[in-house]
Amino acid sequence: MTYKITFLGHATWSLDIDGHTVLIDPFFNGNTLTEVSPDDVEADFIIVSHGHGDHVGDTVAIAKRTGAKVISNFEIGNWLMNTHGLENVHQQHLGGGFQHEFGHVKLTIAHHGSGLPDGSYGGSPAGLIITAASGKSAYFLCDTALFKDMELYAGPDVALVPIGDNFTMGPDDAVEAVKLIKPETAIPCHYNTWPLIEHDGAAWADRVTSETDAKGLELKPGDSFTLED
Ligand code: NI
Ligand code: MN
Questions:
Q1: Distance from the CA of 208 to the center of ligand 1, in angstroms?
Q2: How remote is the CA of residue 24 from the centroid of ligand 2, in Å?
């Protein structure tokens, strides 16, 4: 059983779950934190959390090149099919889970926006809980404010938490989020991409370790974290 999570900077992740490659929010063009190119990145599945450009990113080009199945909310799925001609799309919505080949994906509440880059309506933004056949689970909060109902999603093995402030939770609210979610490990994201969201990921991880029951872990872009069975 494999569940490997690789950080590609900003809020872009590549998962290897039992041999399936799953890209989350594949933002490469414009992502200052990675050299990975959308022209050769691998994907069997792509998950898009919400409609903003730094999350939809290079989804269309990568999906067309690789044939990857795109998983998103209903409105983004329609936009990908009707505006961009993608055919391999799986639409879900908040609160709904589905057992995909690589694992179970549930879309959670996220408090944020979801307008698409061309101004189209992108429905509601989502977080993601992705559970492998091994039972190991990761909660990608994606772009969101702090909200008390995060405690409904408590108990993942790892939480991937935005800390950049301005567009999402900042470091203080992100520590509070970890207290509600109670993961084994908490990893920061959505920071340092631009001056507006510059923060110290290592310092935040240290705060998590000292102020919560979780272990904080900073991943540099390109680094991986593996959930051990
Ligand atoms: Ni956003
Ligand atoms: Mn964002």
A1: 24
A2: 12
In three-state secondary structure terms, 91 is strand
Predicted structure pTM score: 0.98
| Domain residue limits, the chain | 3-226
Separation of 85 CA from ligand 1 center, angstroms? 23
Lookup: tokens for 211: 């102020």
Phi-psi region of 210 (alpha: psi -120 to 50; beta: other; left: phi over 0): alpha
Could you tell me which residues come within 8 angstroms of residue 46 by beta carbon, excluding any fewer than 6 positions away?
A: 22, 23, 24, 26, 59, 62, 63, 68, 69, 70, 71
Measure 112 CA to ligand 1 centroid, in angstroms.
7
For the stretch 3-34, pLDDT in tens is 999 999 999 999 999 999 999 999 999 999 99
Q: Using the mean position of ligand 2's atoms as its centre, give its distance from the Cα of residue 60 in Å.
A: 18
Taking residue 219's Cβ as centre, other Cβ atoms within 10 Å add up to: 20
What's the 72 CA to ligand 1 centre distance in angstroms? 14
Residue 94: how many other CB atoms lie within 10 Å: 16
Do 163 and 189 meet the contact criterion of CB atoms below 8 Å apart?
Answer: yes
pLDDT single digits (tens) 64-74? 999 999 999 99
CATH number belonging to the domain at 3-226, selected among 3.40.50.150, 3.30.450.30, 3.60.15.10, 3.30.300.10:
3.60.15.10
